[in-house]
Design a protein that fits this description.
The chain is an all-alpha fold. It contains 17 helices and no strands.
């Protein structure tokens, strides 16, 4: 009897060559090398952006020194997060013939991974915004804040924000919900149809706006961010492609694709760039996708060595927590501490950098240890409780037992 051919897309029955390709890409934990480091560096940039934003007034007008101008574009780091998110989530599906393995399973795992740290950061942010430093010009958080942000629908409904960085979490949640549908389109119709189906309506919406300049905010539906997520999804196909595709110089292609939007940013400056984020977001997505594909395939070598260093890997491990908790820390330093010690402007920025940056990193590490890492290491409450009992058993096993009263003390 002849054996039946392996099911298309079954990751456990893929050809050995494909397994070898995956092993080259992944570390001992099955993660694609370098991607966590990219997340960490992007989160660090967002921290630096907020340090600059809060110490130099007038954004998007650049009231700071020219040598700090590169810190004006924190929004683009969030776009990078979304491209990277689409890329990372699609990697297992790309290697399994673009099959998801169950919608319910996918959504449960996303909720398990994202929501506990987010809700813990929400509670922390509510306390800080209420009692330490306001997080919004629209008033302190209230019951509507708790409802809207607790349900992660802040991209649909407005409410006084407890943490200005939380707007992107609402966008991510929406993209997770449509991810299975996007994956179905990719599997049935291909990458080009996926990108066209998501991007062309967004472009049409932009062109039909007044002066082809859509009003875009952080507390309303942001459909133009779906194409950047889909671009990342499409880019994940590089890891499942034949060697000829994988060996393309993706880092040089990324540099070429980045040149036009970079030129626009340099020539037009921050005011016009921020005012045209609707189009800039779309323009930078191809370059970001190809750059991530380059890192995922191990290039350039110098960057890969840097991403493999222990500090960058540690930063990547707590990048989500850093994004969640840094802004209340930075705002507390800028609004409550710095005015007592330094003058506004550059002195305040340097003071904030020296105090808020290490505080944010330390706070993120502590926060991740309690509210993020346990959910990364364990896939269920049962697993988490079992791990807790095992650790408690190990700790108790190290405690010396007291000697009975009728035995002599050996000391």
């Amino acid at each position: 009897m002849t054996s039946s051919p392996p099911l298309r897309g079954d990751p456990d029955t893929l050809a050995p060559a494909r397994h070898e390709e995956g092993e080259r890409d992944t570390d001992s934990r099955g993660h694609v090398r370098g991607l966590d480091g990219l997340r960490g560096l992007a989160a660090l940039y967002v921290v630096l952006f907020h340090c600059r934003l809060l110490t130099f007034p007038g954004f998007p007008h650049d009231s700071g020194p020219a040598w700090l101008g590169w810190l004006m574009y924190g929004r683009l780091a969030v776009v990078f997060f979304l491209v990277l998110s689409g890329f990372s989530l699609a990697i297992p599906a790309a290697r399994a013939g673009w099959h998801l393995g169950g919608i319910g399973r996918f959504l449960r795992r996303r909720a398990w991974r994202i929501l506990p740290p987010y809700w813990a950061a929400l509670a922390l942010s509510l306390v800080v915004a209420r009692f330490v430093v306001p997080a919004s010009h629209f008033g302190p958080p209230n019951g509507r804040t708790l409802l809207v942000y607790g349900l992660v629908v802040q991209d649909v409904f407005t409410a006084p924000t407890p943490n200005g960085a939380f707007w992107s979490i609402g966008v991510e949640a929406e993209l997770y919900l449509v991810f299975p549908l996007l994956l179905l389109v990719r599997r049935r119709l291909g990458a080009l149809i996926l990108l066209a189906a998501v991007t062309l309506p967004v472009i049409a919406h932009g062109l039909l706006a007044v002066d082809a300049d859509p009003v875009e905010g952080v507390n309303r539906l942001t459909p133009h961010l779906a194409p950047v997520f889909a671009a990342g999804m499409a880019g994940a196909g590089v890891l499942a492609a034949r060697d000829r595709i994988r060996r393309l110089p993706w880092h040089w292609l990324a540099a070429a694709a980045a040149a036009p939007p970079a030129l626009f940013v340099v020539v037009e400056g921050p005011v016009r760039t921020v005012g045209h984020y609707f189009w800039v977001d779309l323009a930078v997505a191809p370059a970001m996708t190809m750059f991530i594909a380059a890192v995922a395939t191990g290039r350039p070598a110098l960057l890969m060595r840097f991403l493999a260093t222990r500090p960058v890997r540690a930063l990547g491990n707590c990048s989500y927590s850093l994004y969640l908790v840094h802004l209340p820390i930075v705002m507390t330093v800028v609004r409550r501490i710095a005015p007592h010690y330094v003058e506004p402007g550059l002195p305040a920025f340097c003071f904030t950098l020296l105090l808020a940056l290490p505080a944010s990193l330390l706070g993120a590490w502590l926060f991740a240890s309690v509210f993020e890492m346990p959910f990364k290491r364990n896939r269920s409450w049962k697993s988490m409780l079992a791990a807790g009992r095992s650790r408690l058993h190990d700790l108790l096993g190290r405690v010396p037992r007291p000697l009975p009263d009728d035995r002599p003390d050996p000391t």
